[in-house]
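Listing 4. Sequential folding, example run.
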Amino acid sequence: MKNIFLDSDVILDALLNRPEFRIAALNTLQLAVEKRLNCATSSTAFVNVHYFLNKYDRENKMELLKHFRSIISIIEVDETIIDQALESEFSDFEDAVQFFAAKKANVEVIVTRNVKDYKRSTIPVLTPEQFLRTL
């Protein structure tokens, strides 16, 4: 079973039903529901997802988050991850935090729509569509 890290953009694509991206995001999450895939995200990404669900005034945001939480593991962002991100050569601090959280969890791949933001990643980085084609 593959262990993957989901970046917040993929999670939001699924939970906000973003038309151009939702199918691949939902298909990826469905694999986790079916226990064919272990998905993880960082605690900061989870909080960011709540922020955006709130921003778009989703009435059922807490139910969505509870269901989502039931199929995903949360990686704690601690001072080590923050220190690693601060010292890294990533151009975007938030992406550095996500990378070091993924690294802490020993995932096999990071799934994001922002592949270009992970140029410094030592973990393979794929879009949801690319990831699904690997299965």
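-- end of first protein; second protein begins --
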Amino acid sequence: MLHKLLTPVILWMTALLVAAGPLGVTLLMGIESACIPLPSEVIMPFAGYLAYKGQMSFLGLGGANPWIQILTAGLFGAIGCNLGSIPAFELGAWGGRKAVERYGKYILLNLDHLDQAHRFFERFGVWAILLGRMLPVVRTFIALPAGIAKMDRTRFHLFTFIGSLPWCVGLAWVGYQLGERWETLGAIFHKFDLAIGLVLVAGAVWFLWHHIASARRRQF
């Protein structure tokens, strides 16, 4: 059932990345950083795969140079993290935790994840933004406790960008390397695009299943 529900989402994400390139990366990573469950673990590796295919240049800069394409994907991903963090940060700054609890359900916000991010922020303070941007789950929700704590906006966005860039570049590099592996396996299986799609769907299914299961545990 989840496979059938998520397949159109994955197809939309991958089609957007193919059509829009780096700007598509910015849009999808912005959505993920706005606490909406589009996992960067799916977005950025596929961007790296497109870099492997030579489809991640911006305005023709860098040509087919793979490292420039990987860095371009990472750079636009980090920009998306900053832009997407704005509504989450401002929601926390405006209404505090009560506003998050009241309106978070409209963006599938998991309060268990918010609590995890809040504890992480309390432990490490402003450095939690830098560290948290390189950790799964925490990176998606860390803007909310930063907003609740009314962290300085300039420092928040600076740390968000610095922390997001290596995460995005790293995942894009993984996707690039998988591109090379899949190209080799393709001679055997002749199912290159299908295999990539199955990997992406499997990752998204796990992410959403974990999100729903955690929400149910909180209810009971």
